[in-house]
Amino acid sequence: MSAVFDEVVKIVTEVVGEDFLLDEQITPETSFNEDLGLESIEFVELSEKLQEFYGERVSLVEFIAGKDLDGMMAITVGELVTYIESQLASV
Amino acid sequence: MAESTADVAIVGMGAVFPGAGDAPSFWRNIRSGHDAIGEVSPDRWDPAVYCSPEAGADRFYTTRGGFLGDLASFDPAPFGIMPNAVEGTEPDQLLMLRSAAEALADAGDLPADRERVGVIIGRGGYLTPGVSRLDTQVRTAHQLTSALTDIVPGLSVSQVTAVREAFAAQLSSGSGSDDTAIGLVPNFAASRLANRFDLRGPAYTVDAACASSLIAVDHAVRELATGRCDAVLAGGVHTCHHPTLWSVFTRLKALSPAGVIRPLSAGADGTLLSEGTGAVLLKRLDDARAAGDRIYAVIRGVGISSDGRGASMMSPALEGQELAIRRAWASAGLDPLAPDALGLVEAHGTATRVGDRTELTALGQVFGDSGPSIGIGTVKSMIGHAMPAAGIAGLIKTAYAVHEGVLPPTLHVGEPNPALAGSRFAPVTSAREWDASLPRRATVSAFGFGGINAHVILEADASPSPSAAPATPATPALKFAKTAVPATETANIAAGGDAITPGGGSAEPVLRLAADSPAEMAALLDAPDDELLARAGTEPGDGPCRLAIVGPDTRKLKLSRKVARRGTPWRGRSDLWFTPSGLLQDSSQVAFLFPGFEPEFAPRIEGVASAFGLEEPALHRATAGTEGDGVVEQGLDVIAVSRLYAGALAGMGITPGALAGHSLGEWTAMVAAGIYPDIDDFMATLRPGMVEVPDVVYLALGASASRAAELADDLDGVVLTHDNCPRQSVVCGPSSLIEEAAERCREAGILAQVLPFRTGFHSPVFAPFTPPIRESLQALEVQPPRVPIWSATSLAEFPRDPDDMRDLVLRHLVEPVRFRQLTEMLHGSGIRAFVQVGPGSLTGFADDTLSGQDFLTVSTATPKKDGLAQLRRAAAALWAEGLSPRFDRLKAGAAPAAPAASSAAAPSRPVSGKPVRLRLGDPFVRLEGVVPPLAPGDGGGPVPAVPSSDPLYAELNALLAETSSAASDVVSALRSSGAPAPAPAPPALASPSAPAPAAPPRAVGAEREFSLRTMPDIADHCIFPQPDGWPDDTDRFPVVPATTLLEIMGDAALELAPGKVVTGFEQVRALRWLAVAPATRTVVRAAWAPGSSDRVRVAIEGYATGYVRVADSYPAAPAPDTRPLSAPRPAPVNSRQLYDDVWMFHGPKFAGVSDIAILGDDGITGTVLALPARGALLDSAGQLIGHWMQVSRTVDQTVLPTGIGAVRFFGPQPPAGQALGCTARITELTDTEMTGDIELTGPDGRVWCRIDGWTTRRFATDDAIWAVKFHPETNTLSLPAGEGWHVVHENWPDTASRDLMMRRYLNAAERADYDRLNPLQQRRWLLGRIAVKDATRRYLWEHGTGPVYPCELTVTETDGNFQIHGPFRAPPVTVTLSPPDHPGRPYAAAAAGDSHGAFDVDALQLKGRS
Question: Which CATH number belongs to the domain containing residue A47 in this structure?
Answer without folding.
Answer: 1.10.1200.10
